[in-house]
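Final paragraph of the annual report: two paired records, presented back to back.
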Amino acid sequence: MDWVSEWISAWKIPIGRWGRDFFDFLTTNFTWLFDTLADWLATILGGLTQAIFWLPPFIVVLLIAGLAWWLQKSWKLAIGVVLGLAFIINQGLWQETVETLVLVVAAATVSMAIGVPIGIWAAHNERVYRVLRPILDLMQTLPTFVYLIPVLILFGLGAAPGLIVTVIFAMPAPIRLTYLGITSVPKPMIEAGQAFGATKGQLLWKVELPSALPTIMAGLTQCIMLSLSMVVIAALIGANGLGKPVVRALNSVNIPLGLEAGLAIVVLAIILDRMARIGREQER
């Protein structure tokens, strides 16, 4: 039966060549656009990072702890944030942590800003969701290194491609969970709003979104965690942050450096996860 395999292989569909030709077309005709976008993103990320570096680390720690207390009204969480960030400073990884924090927050913000409206649209239009579902499946299952190559070709090395790759990887979560939250709103609530004469916009803002908020915030938490999981991948394409010491430790089999950077990523993930939770029991 080898002849069957040989016959099928002889008629190979040239997907790889088509892809190469497509990206050659993009780089030939739209290099100015991709370079402008990359420079713009790099400038924004660099400006945010430098603004944080301008402040003394202990001030930044206190500001983050204050934000944590304001979001969750938990003094235990605020103390935990201070201790966690103090540990990172103690390990000499403050600069890398700030760079990672800026990248993760930027990626989560962009992902939520794009994903939530798309999720709302899909929840109100089943045809849109049927089109989106295979695309989201592809984005979540396609190995990261596969779309890393075209992103590198289009945007080069640096923080901008790291942000773009992170957004591509994280955005399906808010889309899916927003769709789930909106479609899970009890029908009697919708019918009650309609009975009182609410418009579609009023139903969305006063009924659907408040009811779906816990699920949407779960999408934010997932988005943050997925963004953090891309830290090392982003370091491979030139993005600064905690991924760089991990990559250096991997290349040189440096166990202490890898352990320190890995624990810093875990501490940052726990802090962001606890701060992003809404609806949890408030601790006094």
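The closing record of the year follows.
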Amino acid sequence: IVISVYFPSGSSSDDRQSAKFRFLDAFKVHMDELRQSGREVIICGDINIAHKEIDLKNWKGNLDHSGFLPEERAWLDQRFGKEGWVDVFRMLDPRPERYTWWSQRGQARAKNVGWRIDYQITTPGIAALARNTGIFPDEKFSDHAPLWVDYDLMVEGAAQ
């Protein structure tokens, strides 16, 4: 199962942050149902949460900002910890300063003052097939950069 998703941003107001928290609650239920199906799952898209300090340049200044709030990061901790979902990019690439989003202000992209808020989150079985990953920071389609993962999906005995 492949899901492309855009999680709401809560940065514009308290009401939008409340909507984001409601979305997280609802999406967790959906993720639970997907895991219970027994199928392999890839969830990819803009999650609008930087999980760890390594995932944004100015983490200290953003501890109380939407996208890096303790409750948002705890939501990801639960998915990646107890529930066993995998952040495939981080599994393959532990390097710092690997961002997928930059503000349009202050030459943030040119200075690489960014956030990694785009993910491929998978079940463990499909994560085990991930071989390579990267980000195309120089591709300027939007304020995000494409994040890609190569999976070795060749089935033994299948035509090459």
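The helical segments are 14-36, 70-80, 88-92, 108-111, 124-127. This concludes the annual technical report; the extension proposal builds directly on these records.
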